[in-house]
Specification:
six-stranded parallel β-sheet; 7 helices
Length: 182
């Protein structure tokens, strides 16, 4: 039995493919024909929401898992290299998805490259309230890692979990590195 059909990018986000909408619609048709009970799952780190084709295609998926992890426009711009105004646009668009699953990676870094500060978490949780996700998945790299962004401690992860439990009605799942490799 096939439970899920997963769409994930390797080097670029799947939503960046010029035929993303057509591919998504073809996947839905094939799923209906061969595995009607299987769920279509998309994992996207940076959906190109300015494209109507992408916005339409995201509606095809039973479980669109979208990376959304910034509370302030300043940190969003610093960590992504995108315009700060895009965070509001992304928030508005994601609020229209009915089956949204939010995935967030928390890292520590320089002042503007740390999305685990109290201010960032408060802003992020406030934005989650606008999104009403069906599930929230959170994770962090190893905090002892010496190269690249450092993860947060288990204590900080637990504090974030407590804040989420108070403010967000969606179930929260902490992902381990083994969950991300599958």
């Amino acid at each position: 039995k096939v439970e899920h059909i997963l769409v994930v990018g390797t080097e670029v986000d799947p939503t960046m493919h010029p035929g993303f909408r057509e591919i998504s619609e073809n996947l839905r048709a094939l799923r209906q024909k061969w595995f009607p009970r299987a769920k279509l799952v998309l994992i996207s780190n940076a959906p190109t929401i300015d494209s109507a084709e992408v916005r339409i295609a995201l509606g095809v998926y039973d479980k669109p898992v979208i990376r959304f992890e910034h509370g302030t426009t300043k940190t969003f711009a610093k960590m992504t290299g995108r315009k700060s105004t895009e965070l509001g646009e992304i928030t508005r668009f994601l609020s229209t998805l009915e089956r949204l699953i939010v995935r967030a990676c928390f890292v520590r870094g320089e002042k503007d490259s740390d999305n685990s500060t109290e201010n960032e978490i408060k802003g992020w949780i406030k934005r989650l309230g606008d999104l009403t996700p069906k599930e929230v998945q959170i994770f962090s790299p190893d905090p002892k890692k010496r190269v690249g962004p450092r993860g947060i401690t288990k204590t900080r992860m637990n504090e974030i979990m407590e804040q989420l439990a108070e403010k967000v009605s969606a179930p929260v799942k902490v992902l381990e590195s083994s969950d991300l490799e599958d």
